[in-house]
Design brief:
This protein is mainly α. Helices cover 69% and strands 0% of the residues. The two termini are 34 Å apart. The mean pLDDT is 95.
Length: 249
């Protein structure tokens, strides 16, 4: 198949509709967009439709592209993602994006699920009792931040590492609904999409590799995300993680 045929096939798979034609006020632009994303990127690398769409909704949440998020949440459901998986992918953005932007995405998700006849609220996925948040979070992340930020004035020298451990990892990374491998890979593209978080991108690329993603899968996720977050942020992320992602000589 040529890339036009691949575009037509992929758009039908994801959105259950035909690819853009030349009609309309910006038909030419839409054809460029679709043929690049759905005719080229989607056929480069090993990630399947399900993982690519989870990557896409994570990046769209990060950049607050809410109309496009709505379309791709529907695409996620079309290719076999469950409502719980979508909710978990959005929920875990909160420590990195803040609550307001995450709530915006939750609002779009709830709208999509309601339109698809899904009963809300979805089943709870928390696995940790309130008093266990620090212990369970520490088991995932360790005490690196506690050591690195011991120079902070009191009480923040102890409070900041505790907040990170309990909130980011205890509240979210311990939840059911997504496995740790998927959570870490989505965290990588989320941080890359933010821009200016290259130190954290590198840390979570190491985490993604540790939890089972291959170097090729990490690069594939970042390259796929670049259509939505922009090519400069792709290269910033790749450059920050070169020694982790380069093919062994």
């Amino acid at each position: 198949m040529d890339r036009i045929e691949r575009t037509n096939q992929k758009v039908e798979e994801l959105f259950h509709q035909s690819a853009a034609g030349a009609d309309g006020t910006d038909g030419e632009f839409m054809q460029i967009l679709q043929r690049y994303i759905f005719g080229e990127l989607c056929y480069t690398g090993s990630l399947d439709n399900r993982m690519r769409e989870l990557v896409t909704i994570t990046v769209l949440t990060a950049i607050q592209a809410l109309p496009q998020l709505k379309a791709h949440l529907n695409a996620c459901l079309n290719v076999g993602c469950t409502p719980v998986e979508l909710r978990e992918a959005v929920y875990q953005c909160a420590p990195f994006l803040g609550f307001p932007r995450t709530l915006n995405a939750i609002g779009v998700l709830d709208e999509v699920l309601t339109a698809r006849g899904v009963s809300l609220p979805l089943p709870r996925q928390g696995t940790v009792a309130d008093g266990e948040r620090y212990e369970k979070g520490l088991a995932i992340y360790g005490d690196e931040i506690k050591v690195r930020y011991a120079w902070l004035p009191k009480p923040f020298d102890a409070a900041l590492p505790r907040f990170l451990t309990e909130h980011c990892f205890g509240d979210f990374h311990t939840r059911a609904g997504l496995d740790q491998r998927t959570r870490e890979l989505l965290t990588v593209v989320l941080l890359a999409a933010l821009g200016g978080a290259e130190v954290q991108v590198k840390s979570h690329v190491a985490g993604a590799l540790k939890t089972g993603s291959t170097r090729e899968e990490v690069v594939c996720a970042l390259v796929h995300a670049s259509a939505y977050m922009g090519i400069p942020r792709l290269f910033n992320a790749l450059n920050a993680c070169r020694e982790l992602l380069a093919e062994e000589q």
